[in-house]
Design a protein that fits this description.
The complex is a heterotetramer, with 2 copies of chain A (340 residues) and 2 copies of chain B (621 residues).
Chain A (H helix, E strand, L loop, with lengths): L27 H14 L7 E5 L14 E4 L5 H11 L4 E7 H7 L1 H10 L3 E7 L34 H7 L4 E6 L3 H13 L3 E7 L11 H4 L4 H4 E3 L7 E2 L5 E6 L2 E6 L20 H7 L9 E8 L5 H16 L4 H5 L4 E4 L1
Parallel strand pairs in A: 1-2, 1-3, 3-4, 4-6, 5-6, 7-11
Antiparallel strand pairs in A: 5-11, 8-9, 9-10
Helix pairs in contact in A: 1-6, 3-4
Chain B lengths: L3 H4 L6 E4 L2 E9 L4 H14 L3 E7 L14 E9 L10 E6 L2 H7 L3 E10 L5 H6 L16 E5 L1 H9 L6 H5 L2 H12 L5 H10 L4 H20 L5 E4 L8 E7 H15 L4 E5 L6 H8 L7 E4 L3 H14 L2 E6 L1 H17 L3 E7 L16 H6 L9 E3 L5 H16 L2 E7 H5 L1 E5 L47 E3 L14 H17 L15 E8 L3 H13 L4 E6 L1 E3 L5 H6 L1 E8 L4 H10 L4 E4 L8 H12 L1
Helix pairs in contact in B: 2-7, 5-9, 7-9, 8-9, 10-11, 10-15, 12-13, 18-21
The chains are: A alpha/beta (340), B alpha/beta (621).
Bound molecules: thiamine diphosphate (TPP) (2 copies), iron/sulfur cluster (2 copies) and magnesium ion (2 copies).
Chain lengths: 340, 621, 621, 340
């Protein structure tokens, strides 16, 4: 097979033969394009890549990439992917899920997958709505939002995917936006490179049932004031003219204007490798509705033991210590007797 | 054992030879009855007896001392002939306290030996057991041979000087009781002494105390006059070979390991702990040097889904659970079925419904595993018939899973999983290999069709990592051959029927149903799963008594063996004993329109042979 | 409608009167076919016809424009007589593009009217539909009365001057098509005009455009010569009363609300969205002023558990889902059963297994709801038979739940849930109240026994908040009367049989099974659920044709009506049509040992009457 | 009924008629005693209190208190309690769960219950082991721990219950220790008083399968150096002689000796009412194995909208706006026609 010699592949080599069936204008198209691009840029042949998803518009994703793939059941993709990654450590495993699939029905699997730090890349398409089932509110839908199932407005406090991931010991957490193609590409590449569970929240526009949910972050005039790009080791600066920043007042972040006695050195500096995830958590709390820019980029990226790796290490260790298994020895271990 | 003669102690008093003996040891959860019973079992097996056991413990970890709720028991039958159950009536009962006595005495045969620790019958003990009078002197035990032994006192004496406090000394009581029972049945001490020194090697004072207690018990029997007689159960005739005792869950674990090796696969076992299936996980997790990967998932759904992922990756993927856990797996089992990937789902059944009776046995999940999925979702179902049989059954389950590319359900139960019996150790080389074919890279330009079918309608098992075989599968209806998502009406009906036909095809590859006894007659006893031993023995005895009865025991619940219709035709009546309200019975009546009758017991306990014999006698009448 | 005469427009050409007409509108998901069909339905109903509808849409939200996968359709039959199905063969098909045409044409009767938007048959459109030749001129439509209309062009013309771009103008095409169909069947425009101005009141230009398009369509029919003839379907004879159209899921929601009021309870509805059940949640969430509490849970398990909690609290607790969701609820349904609390579990069935065919209909969850739980776990099961019947069925389900203190399963399906029919609006005062008794505070010193039984074996529903009735319940086996945890073998069997008996007792309180037709004869058609309409009509026609056949339709699947055995005895043969592989058939064969035959369709679509008539003809032969 | 007139009840009035069936020496006994004490001290009659649990040793709890109670199924107690609390707002609802029940199988329900802030008190008995099933590791079992299912040591990174709760928007989060009876009583009373979801982690000793798991925090000599009692508005001081404290260095906490130039004012001050939970999160990261004392007490206690309350508000609002439901109006709404 050609792919065996790792030829340089192009994004289009990763297109499957299935026609893509999202609504015209759906944010999922942009994500699909970037993922294919990132896949092409890494030196991994198609057959060594697997996409696992749950159920939802976003979860149709695997059908559209020419790798191995499984369209699973609702909410269970991280569990399916865990078994896959443990059983076949040489594969690159991607999980595609939605805000309902990943945080609604699937929240527990997501949490445990992340804390086990099994090597895979989880992309959560957050459109703050249940798309496939035609517009009920999701665990990330803001309070007061009118949807099919909340005609008087949503009354569940929404979850913040990045906060949740950090709350369960994530080693890699990032956020990006469907409309911000270059940034998305960078984040996806970082996620793919990370060993362990990479969790990426992607703001995704559902043009049919929740159009403009992230308008504030994609609007060309507004976005510089509403979005802050994290860079490791750099101060938290934002604004069209990069004239605003985030400063820490005790543990409370505040927006400050640069100049007027405030210099970049006074600002909070980003450290994605911080031992404890307190900074990452704090950054996950910056919300547009509270007058803060929302952080995108890599919140946290640290090395930590991985379940899959540790399991294989225990197996090697056991084989060194006790030798490879011998069934006849096992069967006749302990008390036995012979009948002539 | 060959050197039995030398080591065994010459008894001083009358000896009676028995064909078999059924003994039950009962006490507090903390009294070590399970250990005591296991020792007696192994020792008897080593002495050449056939053995069968039935542990019975409360679902609380440690219910309050001395209460009825806290009673833990272990029953063993050892015999000079083949036996298939732990026995019905007890020949001897050893009771460590009043609660244990009153909750078990009814199973002791009239004239049976009752050994009690009389030190445990103080008023406070009686109160804990909700007893107003002391059974030891209210005459209620008149019809038994009661032997009161001050075990606590004697044990403390025995361990004196070792500097153990009473608390620790009293922990050795069970060894004293063991010694006494060993004397009663002329058992050697050496196996247990070896076990004791191995197990407590790091706590020499404990090991020493146990040994002293054991010998003290033995000597008590030997020296005191309380026993007018002792017993001997001569060795049973076995096929030649190497034997060991094995518990059902252990045999299941070993069978899984063997099946993996036989099919050239790595075993991935994903499970969530649940009584009585957890021991399979425990056992497997000990054998990492065999390359076994165990994964304790966050719940049963995750366990099942991880198994699906591992199967997709090409591993031998297996999960084990019990009723409530299986209920949670039903949606994901449906996905496994739709994906047509091989995997094994083990259900060690327990008493239901809901949380039910977690530590008790039952056969009430048959319909759940057959029908507990949305849509038309047929899966093959097999059942184990004895503890050792779990080894063979699970290998067979995997063989079917890979041959037909389907999840396979294997039913065990708490009685099998925790029960033990002698197992003739196979030589691994003698086990039949399990062939598996994975397609390789396609020829240039050749397209891969994931839902193409072979002679038995199985689809190819293409492994991620194989160049050119990239494909996508999922839970939506698939187009025949291509496996693409397809909502086409005719395709759906075609695929539903194809999936059903594939399962039906298994009937052509499994052995025809055997009948134990005449091929025709008045009554056929049709059974499945853990009731094998009781049914087999009951039928044998009734045959010897001249009744026109035969026995057919089903290993395959779906599909049924191809000849089952003829088998049923041979008999005037069909009796189906089950530890449920009549689940197999329903299937048989529907499929074959025979007016099969049920013998149904739903008490969380196995059948006793007599129950089935009685039903047979009525059935042939 | 009384004032029909005045407003209806005098047609200019030949008019043919029909007993009924079956029309299907098909186009892209985005083309508004569902809206168009609904309007035609309401208008026809208001004109006094009996109507029945069948919407059929893809499971993608919006599959790619112009592709076969993206085709969305809506079929309606309106008639001058009672009808019970949306019709078999189409009298008229309106196709908005090539993909819609080719995927639906096979259902159009020979000589039937085919109206197509010829502007949508450009080469690129044909390519999207994977067509090599243009069906409009390759002769493939010879046997139909093809009427090509440049709808896009005409619609754009019609809305000219309103300053809408083409994109928006084209969105009005469906109103043009509607107008044409209205003309063809002499329908009035006013209902739709009213709807249009209400719905688009805030977008006047849109409302105006739609109106213009509608009138343009009507005028096109009126003025052009392309139609040699138009049709009229006179009003049907209904029982006097007030009527409305109602969809199944809507009737279900209203029935729930009514049942709550009738039993003096507050409705708690906990659910997780899933096609095709979600609309029940949507509908209920709109009626907060009725005191309805809807809870969109994080998954189906949570929804079921919240329902259990709400029932314990004393609410009328209900959940609704579809197959995959039900699979997830099975463990918690087992808890509900063990707790013996009243609740209703609605399953709006869809195509399975696994994710299957989410937007298609099927009846394949019957065995799942009966047996998909661990242990012996019987629950009552009822099924709805038509859209409007969902209202009565769910009230009956709740009546049984509270009378017998048990969860009750109610089966609907996608065909019923999304289908619509006229409903004779009841006066709320005429609905029978549902009595419920809650025990009050006990007399001093009197103990409360949560598992005491009444005449039908129901236990008391004691509400938290009631002084002196504090009690604890759970999923472990319970002691009879006290409800305390109990592992006692005999108690377990007693309780298993008691729970089963309680469900059996329902048979004494439900009506005897009615037979439609002679009480005996050659063939009985036995059906359940959404196949009622097709079976009823097919049997009627065969009876008129002189065949010896009768029809029995089961509302109660567990327990069966007390007289079902006698009913079956009356007939030489039994035919069981089901949209599954034979699930009721299995139950009937097992229970009554009759060799019932199945007519099984597993295509994600309802039966057509002809299919059943044919099977009847073979069956009586 | 007597209880109707709210007589002053004693702890023993809350004992049920069932004999308690935990192992002798189990930490659950101490918790049961404190809960009964707290129940007696509040002016709520027994019949207005409900205990809901899942499955586990801890989950046997409801059988032992003379209130209404339900021993549910494994992991689902928060979901059962949610339905109960929504349907009957006048009841005081308690959930008793374990580390396996609440964070293993039940993690998702716990997460959603907490974020909805439904009014109930969740007690998570954390013994870092599966007790009832006889000793498998749990989601809180430390790395390397040998258990029945991890003979070579656990390899899943453990979850930290308090971090998880904070990660999903908890409004009340606390921690206490079975052996610290007075403190437990205080925390339980605070939890009961809080409106919304109160989450309390209780370190609990499983004497049979994980004895001494919290020995470091209960050992009478060690505990002053290993445990830090949080007090609102007070600096973080600990140590037998209260001579040590926690100081913030950037976002990194550090242990400092008081005196020697460090005064209490230099220390981090606790604020359980902080708008954003960053401080609470930071405190949840203090771990014994990292050389920090572990914080006990109330991490966070803020008022926030509650699902149950909001739902009832919407109902009132709807009834004001549209009047109480009229079925005959409803039935005859929209297009209807009359047949004479
Ligand atoms: C067990 C189960 N429950 C419910 C559903 C219905 N369902 C399918 S997708 C979905 C939610 C999808 O929302 P999200 O995950 O946000 O994906 P999106 O469509 O927004 O991309 C639901 C409720 C299902 N398929 N299976
Ligand atoms: C569906 C289901 N799966 C598994 C079990 C078995 N099970 C009962 S309790 C338990 C874990 C209990 O651990 P935890 O919640 O920490 O409680 P503890 O016993 O330690 O107090 C498990 C796995 C069950 N009862 N039901
Ligand atoms: S419904 Fe929304 S999320 Fe789904 S495909 Fe359409 S636009 Fe995308
Ligand atoms: S096993 Fe552990 S947690 Fe369970 S009761 Fe015993 S000591 Fe307590
Ligand atoms: Mg979404
Ligand atoms: Mg625990």
């Amino acid at each position: 097979m050609a792919t065996a010699e790792l030829p340089t592949l192009t994004a289009s080599d990763f297109a499957s033969d299935q026609d893509v069936r999202w609504c015209p204008g759906c944010g999922d198209y942009a994500i699909l394009a970037q993922v294919k691009k990132v896949l092409a840029e890494q030196a991994i042949p198609r057959e060594k890549i697997v996409f696992i998803s749950g159920i939802g518009c976003s979860s149709r994703f695997p059908y559209y990439v020419d790798t191995y793939g499984m369209h699973g059941i609702h909410g269970r993709a991280p569990a399916i992917a865990s078994g896959l990654a443990i059983a076949a450590p040489d594969l690159q495993v991607w999980v595609v899920t939605g805000d309902g699939d990943g945080l609604g029905i699937g929240g527990n699997h997501l949490m445990h997958c992340i804390r086990r730090n099994i090597d895979m890349n989880i992309l959560l398409f957050n459109n703050r709505i249940y798309g496939l089932t035609k517009g009920q509110y999701s665990p990330t839908t803001p309070l007061g939002k009118v949807t099919k199932s909340t005609p008087m407005g949503a009354i569940d406090n929404p979850l913040h995917p990045v906060s949740v991931a950090i709350g369960c010991e994530a080693t890699f957490v990032a956020r990006t936006i469907d409309a911000n193609i270059k940034h998305m590409g960078m984040v996806l590449a970082r996620a793919a490179a990370h060993k362990g569970t990479s969790f990426v929240e992607i703001y995704q526009n559902c043009i049919v049932f929740n159009d403009g949910a992230f308008g504030y972050a994609t609007d060309r005039d507004q976005k510089f004031d509403t979005v802050l790009e994290l860079e490791h080791g750099k101060p938290l600066v934002f604004g069209k003219n990069r004239d605003k920043g985030i400063r820490l007042n005790g543990l409370d972040p505040e927006v400050v204007e640069l100049g007027k006695g405030v210099s970049e050195d006074d600002l909070l500096f980003h450290d994605e490798r911080a031992r404890e995830p307190c900074l990452a958590y704090l950054l996950s709390r910056l919300r547009y509705e509270d007058g803060f820019p929302e952080a995108i980029g890599v919140f946290r990226a640290v090395e930590a033991p991985r379940y899959d790796e540790e399991l294989n290490r225990q197996i090697e260790l056991a084989q060194e210590k006790r030798g490879p298994g011998d069934f006849n020895k096992l069967f006749s271990s302990g008390d036995t007797w012979t009948v002539p | 054992m060959s050197n039995a003669a030398e080591t065994s102690v010459k008894p001083s008093r009358a000896i009676q030879e028995l064909r078999s003996a059924t003994v039950r040891l009962v006490g507090d959860s903390g009294d070590g009855m399970q250990l005591t019973g296991t020792q007696l079992t192994n020792t008897s097996a080593l002495a050449g007896n056939d053995v069968a056991t039935f542990p019975d413990y409360p679902s609380e970890i440690r219910a309050p001392r001395g209460t009825r709720a806290g009673v833990s028991g272990f029953q063993v039958q050892f015999a000079a002939t083949d036996i298939f159950t732990p026995g019905d009536r007890l020949n001897a009962l050893i009771a460590m306290n009043p609660a244990a006595l009153v909750t078990n005495i009814h199973d002791l045969e009239p004239g049976g030996v009752l050994i009690v620790n009389e030190d445990a019958f103080a008023p406070k003990d009686l109160k804990l057991a909700n007893l107003d009078t002391n059974p030891l002197d209210d005459g209620s035990l008149a019809k038994y041979r009661v032997i009161k032994v001050p075990m606590t006192m004697l044990t403390r004496k025995a361990v004196e000087g070792l500097g153990l406090g009473h608390k620790f000394a009293d922990r050795c009581k069970n060894f004293f009781a063991m010694g006494l029972v060993y004397w009663l049945y002329g058992r050697e001490l050496d196996t247990t002494l070896r076990f004791n020194s191995e197990k407590f090697g790091d706590k020499p004072e404990v090991a020493q105390a146990n040994e002293r207690a054991l010998r003290a018990g033995w000597n008590f029997g030997e020296t005191t006059e309380v026993f007018g007689i002792s017993y001997r159960v001569p060795p049973a005739k076995f096929h030649g070979g190497l034997y060991r005792n094995i518990m059902g869950n252990q045999a299941m674990a070993w069978g899984l390991m063997a099946a993996a090796k036989l099919s050239g696969k790595e075993l991935f076992f994903g499970a969530y702990p649940i009584t009585p299936a957890s021991d399979i996980l425990h056992e497997l997790s000990r054998y990492k040097n065999f390359g076994i990967r165990t994964f304790q998932a966050e719940d049963e759904i995750a366990a099942m889904c991880a198994v699906i992922g591992a199967s997709f990756a090409g591993a031998m993927a297996v999960t084990a659970t019990s009723g409530p856990g299986l209920a949670l797996k039903t949606e994901s089992m449906g996905l496994g079925l739709m994906l047509e990937l091989p995997m094994v789902v083990i259900n060690v059944q327990r008493g239901g419904p809901s949380t039910g009776l977690p530590t008790k046995t039952e056969q009430a999940d048959l319909l759940q595993v057959l029908f507990g999925r949305n849509g038309e979702a047929p899966l093959p179902v097999l059942a184990c018939r004895s503890p050792a049989d779990c080894f063979d059954a699970v290998i067979e389950a995997w063989r079917i899973a890979v041959r037909f590319m389907t999840p396979v359900v294997l039913l065990s139960d708490g009685y099998l999983g925790n029960g033990a019996e002698p197992w003739r150790v196979p030589r691994f080389e003698d086990l039949a290999p399990i062939p598996i074919h994975h397609p390789g890279p396609p020829r240039e330009g050749e397209a891969f069709l994931p839902y193409e079918r072979d002679d038995v309608l199985a689809r190819p098992w293409a492994l991620p990592g194989t160049p050119g075989l990239q494909h996508r599968i999922g839970g939506l209806e698939k187009q025949h051959i291509t496996g693409n998502v397809c909502y086409e009406p005719d395709n759906h009906e075609f695929m539903v029927r194809l999936r059903a036909q594939k399962v039906e095809n298994i009937a052509h590859e499994i052995p025809l149903q055997e009948v134990d006894g005449p091929q025709s007659g008045d009554l056929l006893v049709l059974s499945w799963g853990g009731t094998y031993g009781a049914c087999h023995t009951a039928v044998k005895r009734c045959q010897e008594a001249g009744l026109s009865v035969a026995h057919a025991h089903l290993r395959y619940l779906n599909p049924f063996p191809a000849n089952l219709a003829e088998v049923l035709d041979g008999f005037r009546r069909v009796l189906i004993p089950e530890l449920n309200a009549g689940q197999l019975r329903m299937l048989i009546r529907d499929r074959y329109l025979v007016d099969a009758q049920g013998l149904n017991k739903i008490k969380g306990r196995p059948f006793v042979i007599e129950e089935i014999m009685q039903a047979i006698q009525e059935g042939v009448a």
